[in-house]
Structure formats: structure tokens, C-alpha cells
């Protein structure tokens, strides 16, 4: 019973079918400049705050970002009370009350406002609910999306700005949109951004390109929150190693001076 | 092991003398780390052994700290790795050290092995030493593979599925064996649990093999760039301080490279989609092993017949065991073997090509190229090396290490400098 299945998996996997590769030929995303690139590059707090706003007001209606907790937003420069305020706008299951009930008189889950220690609240209760609401595709969790795609942040911007009319003769599946950068070009996510969709309090105009860049900046931080800590420590360590290396060369020369 | 050097003076510190009389650890250290006589002409290619040892220690230390926070459970594994990255103090550092440490470990071990192939370090009387090295390589590969599965990302899961499914190629009993390996009918929670147990165990097996590897090393000591065995005290110097210092210089250089990746490009060696949690229902676009396994992956895929492919892949490593007997040339070092030297570099290139092809999709021209490169790989061992060793006209070999060193420095050999220095130190 298992044998045909196994042989099939092995054959299919080893072959990594050429057809699949050809079908999903997507354009390579344009190479953009980011403040966090390079050994010294750090995040841009303003861009991340604008990106958070876009995530909360647009993407969050479909995508979860479950590895983030509200308290992590301190890294974006929010104060403790601001974080509390943001968290308080979401409701999470409250767990059993003193009487041991987890549901109210009409059978709904008891809830309480979220605290900074809670994870970001997900838009759907489970994958099936997410699928049912989105043309049969689950919107992926965005916590690691910037690290789980090749040239992550560049790809995200390309994807969000890459919607267009399908070339003549292309049949789109029901509910799908045409996207230049998505593998296979047919994506179940309708174009999420339109010009002026969010109200930026200050800073740049809310063009689709600007919003895409900001939300991608935010998503990169969400995927790699320790980037700044890492590079800061890295610079110190490399400085130390450079000195150690030069000293070791000198010591080695001295010790080996009389060996012939 | 080397006999205690009766000429070395007794220890001056009475406590050390007391302990050493009962348990000669200090004598052991002096004989094997201090006075231990080493060819004086070793190049920097001889640094990779100590670097491999350091890499292994780093892997074990970081691994133990990871294991304190890791959950070997299909529902919690991926999230626990991310918790290490985000919430554990310096967890990101520990995890990136472990992740990139595996690449560095393979890098130095591969350089160490090619060094051996170039200088004929596998030849008598070092055959057993060489074979223990190949055994270490053999053990490292499943260890790293098991570790990669623990992350439980998309590549982890599908690599586990592909690699374990290879066992079904074994006639008749393949299928029961693979189900036994999985602990079920697919890669699942029992698989992850046992992979964690084995991933924790195998590095300590490697430690054991390394101990024996070093035992064999200290029996006949290091080979050297001339391939000529030391003839007298003028050819060798004490391990300490000469090679302790030189090895530490190597460590400093190694750390710059290793930590350069850890701090500034920690995801350089990984597949991005291993940051997607494992999903048995979604096959990734391409399943690629880590870079250090790519050449063997190409060998596996080059052969259309499943069982033969698996055998070829194992044979690709196992054939190294036979190197001492495939190469009959009495001259060790490729420095004096022009023909072997040329084929050595072609072979190295072939290995790099095999690695490159391992990362490509299974379509033309990669498939044919993979088959040619695989054929050449085996031809190198089975045809070229034996033939070259028979027909090659080698260049004259220097009379001794010190004669060679002097000739290269353009002067007449000195006598006994190494011994003098050793006495000064002791
Ligand atoms: C020969 C030495 C070792 C090698 C080559 C090795 C290799 C690896 C590799 C390649 C990974 C996947 C890294 C990633 O992509 O994140 C890994 C993960 C892991 N290893 Fe090891 N390892 C070694 C020793 C150890 C030891 C001794 C332990 C435990 C005591 C350990 C515990 C772990 C754990 C818990 C993980 C999963 C967490 C993670 O991926 O960061 N490893 N190992």
C-alpha cells in the first residue's frame, strides 16, 4: 500500500519537476535600497511605524503576525503606555472566570482586552475560516515572510506593487488577481493597497509604492527583530578579533623567529 | 602512544609531581601538547584539524544551550526555535552560531580532507588515521541532516521525507525499515523525537572517533608538505610554543570568517523557505540539502535507478577509505607528483561542479552534466589514481625536511636548531 506512494513521492521530489519550474517563472524583484542593509545598516523607526499602521489597518484583516507580541512594539519607539493603549484595542479569549466559565450566557467566548504580553491577535479563528474567506487560500502568517522569500523585502514591495492586467488570453481563476512577481502570476490576494488608503499623520504621501516600502520595512523588522542588537555586538566583536589577529601574527612571528 | 621522554626533567611543582606520580596527566600533556615533536615545515594547511576540533566544541556547547529551550514536538518545534531567536537571552546568537557553525565545521573538514589528498597523508603508516577521518566525515553528515530536520521548517520536513524514503530502495525489507525509522507511516512526531535524540547523541560519537583519530595521529605524527618523514631532531620542533601559537593564529582568522557570517550574514547558507513552518500538504518548489551535502545529492540524482543511486551516494564517501590502496605511488606529496597534482585540481573542480549541480533543478543540461561529473568522480579514484601512481614519473624527493627547508630558503641546512629550542622551552 505504501510502496507506490513512496516511490511516487521520491520520484516527484527528486525530479522537482521542470514543468512546475517553468510554469511559475516570475520576474525577479527590482533591487531596492534599504536602511537596514550592509554591516552598519539599521532600521528606520519612522518607516516601521508607518508600516505598522498599514499592517494594522490593511493587512491585519486577512493576515496574522503571530510571533509578535504587543510589547515588542517598544522597539519601534512607542512608550509603555502607548503599547498598552494599542494592545487594549484588541480582544483576546479571557479564559475561565472565577466561576469556571469560559463562555457567557449566550455561548460566546469570554474575552478581555489584550495586554502588552499578548501575541498579536489573528483575524481568523483557524485556517479553515481563513481559507473560506479568501478564495480557498490561507493568507500566510506574516511574522517571517520577509525572511522566507528570496530577497525578502524587495520581493514584498514588488509583490504589493506588481498587480496589473493579465496578458490577453490568460484565464484567471475565480477570485484570483494577476501579479507579475507572484510565482505562477495568479494570486488569491486582491490588490491590498490603493493610493491614499491610510492617513499618514506626517511624512510622505501615501502612494502605493510608499505604503508598500513602509510595510515591507516593518515586516523585515518583524522577521528579524534582533538585527540591530546583532550588528552592534558584531562590530565590537570584529574590532576585538581584528586586534587579536594582528597581535597573534606578531606573536607567531616572534616565537618562530629562530626556526629554520 | 609515544613513550615518556626520559630526558625531560621532573616537574618542579610538588603538587604536580604528587598527582603526576599517581595519575600521569601532566606527563601526558607534556608529551602530547608540550614537547610533542612536530615537523617544522607544516604550512597553514595544517591548521584545519585544530579548527575542526574547535568547531565541534562550539557545536556541542551551543547545541546544549539550544536543547534547553527546544521542543521536539511537531506542534512546538518551529515556534520554539523562533522563541529562542526572540525571547531567550542571546538566543539569536546561540542559534546563529549553531546554524553557521555547521557550515564552518564542514568547510574546515573538507579543507582538511583535501589537504590530506594533496599531500598523500593517507599513505603508510597513516592508513588507519585516514580511515578514522573518513569515518568522522561519514558521521558528521547524518548529524547535520538530523539537526536540519529539528527546525521543522518546510525544507526540514521535506528533506527528511526524501532522505528517509531512500531506504525504501532496499529490496524486500526497505519499506518495513522506513516505517520503523519513521515510527509510523510518514515523517511525523515520533520521527522528530528520535531525530532529536540521535542529533544529541551523534556529536559525542564523533568526539569518541576524534579521540581515536588523535591517538593514531600521535603514533606516527603529522605528515608534512614534503611527504618525507622526519629523519632526526633537526627536522622537528616542539608543539608548544610553536604550534600552539600558530594554531591560535588560525583560530583568530577562523573566528573572523565564522563570526562575520554570524553577525552580518547569518542566513547566507540557508534556504529561505525553511522559515516557513513544515506543512505535509504543500511540497516546496525545490528540495535542496545544505550546501555541504550538495555534491552527494548530485551523485544520488545522477543515477536513474533508485537503489543504485543510493549505493553510489554512499560509495562516493566510502571510496575514500580505499585511497591508501588505490594510490600505489611511493611518493606522498603532490609537490613531487606533477601528474597527480594536475588530476588533484581537476578532481577538486569536479567536486565543486557536483556541488553546483546539486542546487539545480532536475532538467537538461544539468542532468547529463551531473552524470558526467559523477562518472568522473568515480573514475578519479578507480582509474586515474591507480594509473597515475603506476606510470607517473615523479620529481626527486628531498633528502630530509631540513634539507628541503634550507633549499627553499637558499642556504645550507643547519643542524639541531629545533632541539636547541626545545631544551630552552622545557
Ligand atoms: C557535530 C556537531 C553538530 C552539528 C554538525 C549540528 C548541526 C545542526 C544543524 C545543521 C542544525 C540546523 C540549524 C538551523 O538551520 O537552524 C542543528 C540544529 C539543532 N541542533 Fe545541532 N549540530 C551539532 C551538535 C549538536 C549538539 C551536541 C546538540 C545538543 C546537545 C545540538 C542541538 C541542536 C538543536 C536543539 C537544534 C534545533 C534548533 C535550531 O535549529 O537552532 N546540536 N544542528
Structural commentary:
The complex is a heterodimer of chains A (260) and B (426). With 260 residues, chain A is mainly alpha-helical. Chain A has helices at residues 2-15, 18-23, 45-57, 80-88, 127-133, 152-161, 208-223, 227-256; strands at residues 91-93, 111-113, 177-178, 186-187. In chain A, a hairpin with a 7-residue loop joins strand 3 (177-178) and strand 4. In chain A, helix 3 (45-57) packs across helix 7 (208-223) and helix 6 (152-161) runs antiparallel to helix 7. The model of chain A is unreliable at 1-23 (pLDDT under 50). Chain B has two domains: 32-281, Cytochrome Bc1 Complex, Chain C; 290-397, plastocyanin oxidoreductase (Helix Hairpins), CATH 1.10.287. Chain B has 426 residues and is mainly alpha-helical. Chain B has 17 helices and two strands. The chains are: A mainly alpha (260), B mainly alpha (426). Chains A and B meet through helix 1, helix 2 and helix 8 of A and helix 4, helix 5, helix 7, helix 8 and helix 10 of B. The structure holds protoporphyrin IX containing FE (HEM).
What's the β-strand tally of chain B? 2
Tell me, what is the CATH class of the domain at 26-68 and 119-224 in chain A?
Mainly Alpha
In the CATH hierarchy, the third-tier topology of the domain at 26-68 and 119-224 in chain A is known as: Cytochrome Bc1 Complex, Chain D, domain 2
List SSEs of chain B in N-to-C order: HHEHHHHHHHEHHHHHHHH
Largest sheet geometry of chain B: 2 strands, antiparallel
Strand content of chain A: under 5%
Gross geometry of chain A: globular
Q: What's the alpha carbon Rg of chain B, rounded to whole Å?
A: 24 Å
**CATH-assigned fold name of the largest domain in chain B:** Cytochrome Bc1 Complex, Chain C
Q: For the record, give the distance between the C-alpha atoms at the N and C termini of chain B, rounded to a whole number.
A: 20 Å
Uncertain residue segments of chain A: 1-23
- Reading off the top of the CATH hierarchy, the class of the largest domain in chain B is best stated as Mainly Alpha
Amino acid at each position: 500500500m505504501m510502496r507506490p506512494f513512496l516511490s511516487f513521492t521520491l520520484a516527484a521530489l527528486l525530479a522537482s519537476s521542470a514543468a512546475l519550474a517553468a510554469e511559475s517563472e516570475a520576474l525577479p524583484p527590482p533591487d531596492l535600497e534599504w536602511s537596514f542593509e550592509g554591516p552598519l545598516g539599521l532600521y528606520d523607526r519612522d518607516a516601521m511605524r508607518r508600516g505598522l499602521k498599514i499592517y494594522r489597518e490593511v493587512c491585519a484583516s486577512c493576515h496574522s503576525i503571530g510571533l509578535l507580541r504587543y510589547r515588542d512594539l517598544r522597539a519601534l519607539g512607542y512608550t509603555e503606555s502607548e503599547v498598552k493603549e494599542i494592545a487594549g484595542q484588541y480582544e483576546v479569549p479571557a479564559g475561565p472566570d472565577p466561576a469556571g466559565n469560559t463562555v457567557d450566557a449566550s455561548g460566546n467566548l469570554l474575552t478581555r482586552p489584550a495586554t502588552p504580553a499578548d501575541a498579536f491577535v489573528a483575524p481568523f479563528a483557524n485556517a479553515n475560516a481563513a481559507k473560506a474567506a479568501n478564495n480557498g487560500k490561507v493568507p500566510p502568517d506574516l511574522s517571517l515572510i520577509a525572511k522566507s522569500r528570496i530577497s525578502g523585502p524587495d520581493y514584498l514591495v514588488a509583490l504589493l506593487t506588481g498587480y496589473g492586467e493579465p496578458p490577453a488570453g490568460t484565464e484567471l481563476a475565480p477570485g484570483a488577481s494577476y501579479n507579475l512577481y507572484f510565482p505562477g502570476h495568479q494570486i488569491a490576494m486582491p490588490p491590498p493597497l490603493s493610493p491614499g488608503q491610510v492617513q499618514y499623520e506626517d511624512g510622505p504621501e501615501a502612494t502605493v509604492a510608499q505604503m508598500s516600502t513602509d510595510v515591507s520595512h516593518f515586516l523585515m523588522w518583524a522577521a528579524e527583530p534582533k538585527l540591530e542588537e546583532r550588528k552592534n555586538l558584531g562590530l565590537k566583536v570584529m574590532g576585538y578579533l581584528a586586534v587579536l589577529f594582528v597581535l597573534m601574527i606578531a606573536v607567531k612571528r616572534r616565537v618562530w623567529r629562530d626556526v629554520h | 602512544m609515544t613513550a615518556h621522554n626520559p630526558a625531560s626533567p621532573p616537574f618542579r611543582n610538588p603538587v604536580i609531581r604528587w598527582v603526576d606520580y599517581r595519575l600521569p596527566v601532566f606527563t601526558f600533556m607534556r608529551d602530547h601538547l608540550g614537547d610533542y615533536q612536530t615537523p617544522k615545515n607544516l604550512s597553514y594547511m595544517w591548521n584545519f584539524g585544530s579548527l575542526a576540533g574547535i568547531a565541534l566544541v562550539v557545536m556541542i556547547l551551543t547545541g546544549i544551550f539550544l536543547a534547553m529551550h527546544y521542543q521536539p514536538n511537531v506542534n512546538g518545534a518551529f515556534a520554539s526555535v523562533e522563541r529562542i531567536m526572540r525571547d531567550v537571552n542571546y538566543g539569536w546568537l546561540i542559534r546563529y552560531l549553531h546554524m553557521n557553525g555547521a557550515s564552518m565545521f564542514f568547510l574546515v573538514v573538507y579543507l582538511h580532507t583535501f589537504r590530506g589528498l594533496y599531500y598523500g597523508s593517507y599513505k603508510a603508516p597513516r592508513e588507519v588515521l585516514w580511515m578514522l577521518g573518513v569515518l568522522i566525515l561519514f558521521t558528521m553528515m547524518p548529524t547535520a541532516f538530523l539537526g536540519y530536520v529539528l527546525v521543522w521548517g518546510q525544507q526540514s520536513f521535506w528533506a527528511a521525507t526524501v532522505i528517509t524514503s531512500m531506504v525504501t530502495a532496499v529490496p524486500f525489507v526497505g519499506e518495513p525499515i522506513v516505517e520503523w525509522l519513521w515510527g509510523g507511516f510518514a515523517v511525523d512526531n515520533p520521527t522528530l523525537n528520535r531525530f532529536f535524540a540521535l542529533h544529541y547523541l551523534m556529536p559525542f560519537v564523533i568526539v569518541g572517533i576524534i579521540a581515536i583519530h588523535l591517538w593514531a595521529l600521535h603514533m606516527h605524527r603529522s605528515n608534512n608538505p614534503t611527504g618525507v618523514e622526519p629523519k632526526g631532531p633537526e627536522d622537528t620542533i616542539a608543539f608548544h610554543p610553536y604550534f600552539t601559537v600558530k594554531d591560535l593564529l588560525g583560530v583568530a582568522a577562523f573566528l573572523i570568517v565564522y563570526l562575520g557570517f554570524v553577525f552580518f550574514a547569518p542566513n547566507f547558507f540557508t534556504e529561505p523557505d525553511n522559515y516557513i513552518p513544515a506543512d505535509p500538504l504543500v511540497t516546496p518548489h525545490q528540495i535542496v540539502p545544505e550546501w555541504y551535502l550538495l555534491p552527494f545529492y548530485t551523485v544520488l540524482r545522477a543515477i536513474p535507478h533508485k537503489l543504485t543511486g543510493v549505493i553510489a551516494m554512499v560509495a562516493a564517501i566510502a571510496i575514500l577509505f580505499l585511497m591508501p590502496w588505490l594510490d600505489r605511488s611511493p611518493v606522498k606529496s603532490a609537490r613531487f607528483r606533477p601528474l597527480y597534482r594536475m588530476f588533484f585540481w581537476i578532481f577538486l573542480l569536479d567536486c565543486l561542479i557536483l556541488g553546483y549541480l546539486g542546487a539545480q533543478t532536475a532538467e537538461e543540461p544539468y542532468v547529463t552534466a551531473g552524470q558526467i561529473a559523477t562518472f568522473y568522480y568515480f573514475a578519479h579514484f578507480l582509474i586515474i589514481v591507480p594509473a597515475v601512481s603506476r606510470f607517473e614519473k615523479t620529481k626527486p624527493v628531498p633528502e630530509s625536511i631540513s634539507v628541503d627547508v634550507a633549499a627553499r630558503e637558499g642556504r645550507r641546512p643547519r643542524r639541531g636548531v629545533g632541539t636547541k629550542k626545545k631544551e630552552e622551552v622545557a
